[in-house]
Amino acid sequence: MQSDTICIWNLNLCYRTLGDGPDVLFVHGWASSGRMWGAAMQALADRYRCWAVDLVGFGDSDKPRNGWYALPNYTATLRQFAEVVGVRQAHVVGHSMGGMIALDLAASYPWLVRRLAVINPVVTGRIQFPLPPRLDTLDAVSGPRYPLPLLALARHAWPAAARFAARHPASAWASARSLVGRWGDWAKPTADSALGGIRAILNYDTTPLLPQIASPTLVMVGEHDPTISPGEGRLAADRIPNSRLEVLPAGHHIADEMPREFLALLSEFLAAAD
């Protein structure tokens, strides 16, 4: 797998590419990186040219100060990335926050998105676990800071996570293994980028845009997701005209928890374009 860096609007973006054929652009979720898509890229590389970008503020990409982080900025950066690397049209696959960005990309730049797959997407800006007080107005540049933002989020998320683990131990164990496997990615965001990414989600709602999405769309939902309500994905599938909903007995990280089922669904969906 080839890894490289490209400058978009004075920001260095790390990305990975593998394979040859029609383009597939993968978009990761909050506090993750393009590395999360490694197994999917390996599986698809014999038929597709796969791209996975580290979003601004995460992974090995640049992490600007707090004022940058807004959902339309992520969307515009991905569109510009595609233009610079020569991707004129792509299948787009997004997870969680990346699903929200993918939805926005398909609505804002319909000519760019050939087919769209979103996994446990954030749609309305609502997430299930309780957040630290005043997170939506926190100014990490001039105002008070959380010196350990991931720890602060974890403390507030713990009650919901514990309830999820008690009800669905198999999915909880698979989710925990997924998080531990990408622990390095959790350590890379700064206070500005971690909180800025969360605020970008909370301050955006793709619901009015969903009827505008013309791309054939696959929505995958984990029915035991403790982070993003399955209702978010169901809403997307209900409002996007040419969409299909798949509900799986999984949590938030379907690609890790049910890799064979995930790859089978994604491969079959992408192949329908051929």
Give the gist of this structure:
By secondary structure, this protein is an alpha/beta fold. 40% of the residues lie in helices and 19% in strands. β5 (90-95), α3 and β6 form a beta-alpha-beta unit.
User: How much strand content do the residues show?
Assistant: 15-25%
Rg, nearest Å: 17 Å
CATH topology: Rossmann fold
For the biggest sheet, the summary is: 8 strands, mixed
CATH architecture identity? 3-Layer(aba) Sandwich
Could you say how many structural domains there are in total?
1
How far apart are the first and last residues' alpha carbons, in Å?
A: 24 Å
Shape: globular
How is the largest sheet built, in terms of strand order? 1-2-4-3-5-6-7-8
Number of strands: 8
Instruction: Indicate the percent of residues in helices.
Output: 25-40%
Number of helices: 10
Q: pLDDT below 50 for ≥5 consecutive residues: which ranges?
A: 133-151
Helix-strand sequence: EEEHEHEHEHHHHEHEHH
Q: How would you explain this protein's 3D organization?
A:
It is a single chain. This protein has 274 residues and is of the alpha/beta class. It has a single domain (2-271), classed as 3-Layer(aba) Sandwich (Rossmann fold). It is 40% helix and 19% strand. The chain is built from ten helices and eight strands. It has an eight-stranded mixed beta sheet, with helices on both faces. Strand 7, helix 8 and strand 8 (243-248) form a beta-alpha-beta unit. The longest helix is centred in the middle third of the chain and has 19 residues, at 149-167. The model is unreliable at 133-151 (pLDDT under 50).
